[in-house]
Design goal:
It is built from eight helices and eight strands, in the order βαβαβαβαββαβαβαα. By secondary structure, the chain is α/β, with parallel strands linked by helices.
Length: about 220
């Protein structure tokens, strides 16, 4: 069944631990954490100390998205801090196979991310290595952007390659996900759906999470 991954980029950082605990109580199993370096993307967010602090207040799985130029250098520090999944961008990894295997050797699951302008074909030779694939449905760097519909075609192509090759990695999507389009991305083949503003910019984030989770599950039940 599809899983909603709330993105803390849109959360209230003054009460971040409490927001995560409320989501966990509402049934959330995995949370998405965006790490930005101000170089690969035009924004700065969090580092390993924040991951380490949050690890103490929740047992949820940490899906850590490294939007940074040197993931080989910093991924081990994020894993030591408590990252369960570490996702790196194809665009920043000249030796992608080696990077993914390094993350796995450090004890985390390794995911790869592609930007809106990067074709799925660029991942052909690592699909048997990855633990997940994340398709960006906005240009990375800021929350609250509008959904790019071509990402649905990329999700469909990935889903087809999974079936053809007998692979099991989950397909993840991130950017511009709302209550109105979550069913569409699930029907296209997305299994992990990252959502930020649609959850945290509401009066009741745990209720918004549960509503989006229901919409995703309903879409999966009728997907053809």
């Amino acid at each position: 069944m599809p899983e909603i991954l709330p993105s803390i980029l849109s959360a209230d950082f003054a009460r971040l631990g409490g927001e995560l605990q409320a989501l966990e109580a509402a049934g959330c199993r995995t949370v998405h954490l965006d790490v930005m370096d101000g170089h690969f993307v035009p924004n700065l967010t969090i580092g390993p100390p924040v991951i380490e602090s949050l690890r103490k207040v929740t047992k949820m799985t940490f899906d850590v998205h490294l939007m940074i130029t040197d993931p080989d250098r910093y991924a081990p520090a994020f894993i030591q801090a408590g990252a369960d999944h570490v996702l790196v961008h194809q665009e920043t990894c000249p030796h992608l196979d080696r990077t993914l295997r390094m993350i796995q050797s450090e004890g985390a699951r390794a995911g790869v991310v592609i930007n809106p302008a990067t074709p799925v074909a660029m991942l052909e030779d690592v699909l048997d290595v990855v633990d997940s694939v994340l398709v960006m449905s906005v240009n990375p760097g800021f929350g609250g952007q509008s959904f790019l519909h071509n990402s649905l075609n990329k999700i469909r192509r990935l889903a087809m390659r999974k079936r053809e090759c007998g692979l099991q990695f989950p397909i993840e999507i991130d950017g511009g996900i709302t209550m109105e389009n979550v069913a569409e991305v699930v029907r296209a083949g997305a299994e992990w759906i990252v959502a930020g503003s649609s959850i945290f910019h509401t009066v009741n984030p745990p209720a918004a999470f549960q509503q989006m989770q229901r919409l995703a599950h309903d879409a999966a039940a009728i997907r053809v």
